[in-house]
Design a protein that fits this description.
Blueprint lengths: L1 H30 L6 H22 L15 E2 L4 H12 L3 H28 L5 H22 L8 E2 H21 L3 H15 L2
Parallel strand pairs: 1-2
Length: about 200
């Protein structure tokens, strides 16, 4: 699936990122004359690239999803139902291919939104647990709604409320990782002051 998405995704990124940089340069030249931060602009660009990849992975009509098969024709509105079945497949199924596909779906949905939980505080300064939860749930719900609508155009992607739960959980894991590995600047200042204070009379 990702192999089929690689070429269109790269083409969309090749068109989107330069256009984003051009718009940012025009905006800065017309309205903003403050100091330029390459780090901040790079973070914004990576965030945009992530959003483009996210939409391509979840909505782009690759040939595989144009065939109404069992795997891509499901609409599940019962929370935890499919995830429970997939966990059973992983633990009990003797068919390795079925267990691998179930594990791939669970981990894939978690990883898909994990960067969102990192980019929201890093780029937009949104560090609230509930705000990240709401944004992730709203974005995932919007994607699932689009996938449901696209079924009318013979683009058969699985529509599942469990995807929303897993996506939101992935974003919260990303937020936790960001909080874990980000050390506040004032903590660095305290650590630097401590040796000086120890040698002072």
């Amino acid at each position: 699936m990702l192999y089929q998405l690689a070429k269109p995704m790269l083409l969309i990124l090749a068109a989107t990122i330069p256009m984003w940089w051009l718009l940012r340069l025009l905006y800065r030249s017309m309205y903003h004359h403050g100091p330029y931060s390459l780090q901040k602009e790079s973070q914004n660009s990576f965030f945009l690239a992530y959003l483009v990849c996210l939409l391509c992975i979840t909505l782009y009509p690759i040939p595989l999803v144009r065939i109404q098969s069992h795997g891509f024709s499901q609409v599940n509105l019962v929370p935890v139902k499919r995830t429970y079945n997939e966990l059973n497949n992983i633990l009990q199924s003797e068919r390795k291919s079925l267990a691998f596909r179930s594990l791939q779906n669970i981990i894939g949905n978690l990883l898909l939104f994990l960067p969102l939980g990192i980019f929201l505080p890093m780029v937009l300064g949104i560090r609230s647990f509930f705000k990240v939860l709401l944004i992730a749930a709203a974005l995932s719900s919007g994607i699932e709604l689009c996938q449901y609508i696209l079924r009318n155009f013979r683009i058969f992607r699985s529509v599942d409320v469990d995807d929303i739960i897993l996506n939101t959980s992935g974003a919260l894991i990303g937020l936790a990782l960001y909080a874990l590995f980000r050390r506040p600047k004032n903590q660095d200042m305290v650590l630097k002051k401590e040796p000086a204070e120890m040698v002072s009379p």
